[in-house]
Specification:
The protein is an all-alpha fold and 409 residues long. It contains 17 helices and four strands.
Length: 409
Amino acid sequence: MTAQRLIHGSAALAAAGSLAVTLWTGLDDRGVALAFGVLIAVGELGRWSEARVRQAAPLGTAGALSYALLGADAGRPTHHDAAQVVTVVLAASLLGGVPHIWSGRTPTLDHLARRVLAVGFAAVCFQPLYNRGVFTPWDGSAYALLLLALLVLTALCDAVLAAALAHSRTRWPFGPLLRDELRGLLGIGSAVCATGAVMALAVAVAGMWALPVFCLPLLLTQLSLRRYAAVRATYRQTIASLARATEIAGCTPSGHAHRVAALSKAVGRDLGLSGPELTVLEYAALMHDIGQLSLVDPVPAGATAGLPAADQRRIALLGGAVVRQTGVDGTVAVVVERLADPYREQPVAARIVRAVNAYEEKTRDAGPEGPLRALEELRLATAADYAPEVVEALARVLNRDCLTLPMAG
């Protein structure tokens, strides 16, 4: 059983059990449940997906966590249990996710499973003890620290679930995926946890009027993040357009840069590169041939892997100079400049682009036996030209793509 099926099954069981208990016992504090349900649904309507697997619904997440850790409404103790929390959050998430389900833009099942299990974990840790009066003697500061501690634990559990689901869906290494999720907690994740705790505390003192007041900062943060995501998308489109310049000029075959970039990212994931490192790798792969625009005599078919070392180094240095003039991150320029260096002196991204570019050139018109022959040639050249760990990662990636390729050893 894959992790994805296990997580989906656990979430389904938790949701079904919570719904059955809520239907049997009835809904407590209906006004509170309605207010938080509306907040969560509105947050889900504004959900968007990043370029990676992570999804962003900060307002809905903060509202769900706040409801899971809610102990009082304007000084009056609430009586809802963990089952009601899961039921309300699930119903509101489904209602707010209808447009996303209809359009099929996001992996909604994964998102709902994470939401149910994470919120259920927080509610089970808090509500039974609160309803028994365990937290009644706690003063304000201790109570606030308790909520923050529970939110941190919940965020860590959600990060593990997100990484496990992404690993099951994509087969990318689990470690880098978890590292990216944990890194995300330091950004919008910390704002979501803080807002969830503040809303739970504020509602306990001021009642439901505290919800719209304390949602405003997170709404502004969400708006800023969406604008930043739009800028990043435009930036990537600009780089992709620059990468096509070599194709338009007839220096490289059509689609070569994008094929190298896609395969380089897959190899980078297999080697455990993090999100920012993968971004630099992708941009460098897209622009690895841009130095050919400065050549008087074009390279036949744009195949640089077979050129003498001096010519490869000249093209790499010219490419780095062009990249610097475009305003792209200087780290990308460094990778492009060092594509022709001895592999032991190269950064990992340069090693990957160099090996993948050679593989793509060798298989371009080689026929059915081309992939196997190209990989063997790369393996034979690992003593001087290509990093052995990169070549074997390339073999693993190609093998996962259902190509019949021999593995080392």
